[in-house]
Queue: 3 jobs
Job 1
Amino acid sequence: MSELEERVAAIEKHLGISKQPQVIDWSRLDVNTPIMVWDYPENERLQFFERHHKNKGEFPFIAGRAWVHASLETGIWVFNAEGRNPWPEGVRVRVRLRGGATGIASATDFRWEGQNDENSVVASCAIRLDDGWVYE
C-alpha cells in the first residue's frame, strides 16, 4: 500500500467511512415484507425458489426450515396499514403517497408513521438494494 493509500485509509477510518459492503439486517423486516428463500445454487434461483412472508425471528425466517439464500422480493407492493416501515435499512423502494404522488428513494428517507396527510406512505415495493449493501 502506498503512502497516499495509507493516508486515505486512515482518514476513512477516522471518519467512519467503510468500503466494506453493509449487510441487510434481516431481523428488521416487518412480518408482511415479501422475501425469496432458496437452497439451490445462485444460478438456479429463478427456477427454484419459494415466496414467504417473514415469521417472527431472524434468518432463516421460517421456523423449522433452514434456508441457504435469501433476498427481498422486488416489485411486490406492501400496503402501509400499520404505519411502520416494512423495509430494512439499505433498501431502495418505490412509494405511493396518500396524496397520489410517487417517489423512489432509500426506505429510511420516507415518513412511515401515518399522519393521514398527503405525504404519508400508503404502499411501497422494493426495487433494489442501495449502493454498498448486500444480502449476506
Job 2
Amino acid sequence: AITARAEAADFIRSCTKDFHLSLSRRLVFSLDGTRAYFIVPVAKAPPAKSKLPPERKMVAFELKVASAKLEPVFGLKDIAQADLIPTLDMAGNANTLAALVTNGEDSFCALGDVEFVGGPNDQSKPVKRKGFFGVVPTTRIPVAFDPVRRALVQLDTVSMQYRQLYKVPGKDFPVFTDPVRGRMILWNGQQRLLVEHTAGIPLEKKARKVKFREGYQVLQQGYRFAAIKTDVPNNTFVIHEMPEWTGVTQEKEYSIKLPGGYSVAQSMVLPLFDRKLALVTARNDQTRRRWQKVFLWDYRDGKILREFSAGGINYFGEAGISPDTKTIVLVQMSGATGTAEKVRVFNLSKESEREILLESP
C-alpha cells in the first residue's frame, strides 16, 4: 500500500504537469448525446422570516436535451472540499458519483482517497464505498483503478460492490479503458509516453505508443489524444493532431489565438476532434468571474464561431459539447452567491438556444 501511494504521488505530479484537462469531470453526456449530467453547487432559500443563510449543497442533475427537462438526481452536503466525478453505467447514464476528498491537485488527476456515492435506488439511504482509488475515463462502464492491487475494477451503480476486470501491468497509470474490448491506454510519466495495451498479455515492445515532446501536454477527448502547446507570449494554443491517436487522416498543427484580455495561461480547451471544434473556457472560478464568456472555436479555420456571454456579474461554470456534436451545455453561475442559477442549451445545427432555471430540491 505504501509503494502504491508513492507511485500514485509520482503519477499525480506528472499528470498535473503533462495533462491539459483534468481526468475528472463535473459535466458529462450520455453516449448518444441525448442527456447531460452535471454536479453543481446550488442554494436553497431558508423558510420565510428565517435569519439563516441559504443552504448550500452539491446537486447532481439530469438534463434531457431534446425536451429541456431537468431533474435532480441526488444531493450531497458538507463536501465543499471534494471534487465530484459523475461516472457512467452500462446504458451511459450517470448513476454514480465519486467524491474525491483530497486537495485540488490530487482531484485534477482523479486519484486519491475516494468516497463513491450510489445514485437513486430502492434503499432508504445512498450506498457508499470508501477507499484509495482512481477514476478512469471509459466508453460506458464506471471503472475505478485500484493502485494497491494494480487492477481496474467495475462498480455496480446500485450496490456499489465491484469486481476485478483485469490487471494493469508495470507501473504505468491508465488514462482510458474500453472494458468491452479489454483495451487500455497507459501513461508513463517518466518517459512522457502514451501506450496502448490489451489486457491479459504482457506489454509488447511493438505496442502502439507515442512520446510527447517537451513543451506539449496531452489533450484528451475520450479514447482520442492530441498534443497541445500553450504559447503564452503569442497568447495561442497549438493543437498537434496525430493520425493514429487523434483519429485523423494526416498529422497537422492548428492554432487558436485568443483575443486580447483572455489569456491562454488561464484557460482550457475542450476539443471535438471530428469537427475541429473546441470550447475555450476559463480554467478556474476566479478567472471565470472575470471572463464571463465561453468561446466556441473552429480551429480548422482559426476563427470564433460564437461567444457566449453570461451578462451582469454572472459567469459560466461547467461547460461541454455532446459526443454527437449537436449540443453545447453551459451552466450559468450567480456572481453574487457562486451557485448555479440556470442551464443554457445551444443547438449547433439549428442555432437555437434554451434557458432552464435551476432550483434546489
Job 3
Amino acid sequence: MKLDLMKLFEGCVRNYHTFNMTVHHGKHSFTMTEMEYFSRLDSLLGYHPFKLCSGGFKIMKRRVCTNDADFQRANIFQRKLEVWVAGELSTVGKIESFTADSVKMIDGSYYLRMNCKFFMV
C-alpha cells in the first residue's frame, strides 16, 4: 500500500482551524489538542489511537459491543462508543440509554443495533 504523505499532511493543515486556538493558549494546550486530533484521526482510519496516561502513552483497545452487558458496561463507566453505520463512522459519544433494539446517545441521536456496529473506546 503506497501512502501519499504530502496529501495526508495537507489534510491535517486544513483541519487545524478546528483546534479553536488563540494566541493566549500555551504550547501545552496546543500539543494536547493536536494529540487529541490525531487520536480521532487514527480511529477514523481504523488504527488504535493512543491515550496519554501518567506513565506515558498507552494503546487504547477497541472492543466490539455485541450484547447488553457490553452496553451496560459502557453506560455505567461512561465509556465512549464509536458508532459505525454502513462502514462509516457516524459519531463518537456516550450512551444515555439502550434497549434490545436501539441505542440512544447522550446527544439525543438513536441508532438501531441491527444496522450499526458499536465499538467501546
